[in-house]
């Protein structure tokens, strides 16, 4: 296989969990370099990766084809721009950037340099979201009239991460962090909305960045899509709720990849590596072709974040479609900005 040499901009939680293991296990990639500013924790699992003390030094000295910008969001624009201008293809962790203007500039530079720019929207490869796509594609629900996508947590205590909790830092908070996933899933399923209304604030108080949001997306075919997240949700809700002309579908958030990776699981290439479900995680209720109501307990198939890197590889080597290209995620950034604007002005924002 053609070998793609990769440089990783940070070896924190994102690097250790979401990127380095998949780069190592995919036969088409080689983790050639990474940035650790003071430690050398990577040596145990990635002894062949050269360690640099800054992104600038890695870009200037490492023999790499592809850069993964997985630093705090406030630095995404700076490092991605630097990498593109150095002639490297770029993967940027979500959220893409702080503002849509930054995202647009990066898209322009990538196009001018004839390089690719992809955003790591890994939740497209969650088992629960893949099941949602499968059910909607089956058309058993008929035309969808109402949908809700949630990502709730119970984290009443603030995170120790300044770039996520400090309200004075642009791009901090749940809307950029988790909202980037929910907005991406909504636009993947239903496209770009006509307008929106949003409520965004901090349940923990004004000393912290937003940790709650509710966004209503309005579509031209009388569809309403609600996106919601809270850090004070001790009891789990259904993460996905869809109501259509012929039925309803309720899906739990059951993807365990992040939990298993944090616990030390190692992904494998072209093999299922996650734990199987213990019981069904969805309920499908619909009117069948005999005008009878059917109620089915559904079980989602395993997801796999390796698929993202496989699609990146296939794009580089075979010219296949690029997963979550920057020009696509730029539109999602506009929704995030409109949600902040809507909440501040307390009014519907037309897109």
TrEMBL record:
Family (UniProt): Belongs to the Gfo/Idh/MocA family.
Higher taxonomy: Bacteria, Pseudomonadati, Bacteroidota, Flavobacteriia, Flavobacteriales
GO MF: nucleotide binding; oxidoreductase activity
SUPFAM superfamilies attached to this UniProt entry: Glyceraldehyde-3-phosphate dehydrogenase-like, C-terminal domain, NAD(P)-binding Rossmann-fold domains
A Pfam cross-reference name: GFO_IDH_MocA
Name of this chain's protein: Oxidoreductase
Domain GFO/IDH/MocA-like oxidoreductase: 129-249
Keyword Cytoplasm among record annotations: no
InterPro entries: Gfo/Idh/MocA-like_OxRdtase_N (IPR000683), Gfo/Idh/MocA_oxidoreduct (IPR051317), GFO_IDH_MocA-like_dom (IPR055170), NAD(P)-bd_dom_sf (IPR036291)
UniProt keyword terms in alphabetical order: Oxidoreductase
Domain Gfo/Idh/MocA-like oxidoreductase N-terminal: 4-120
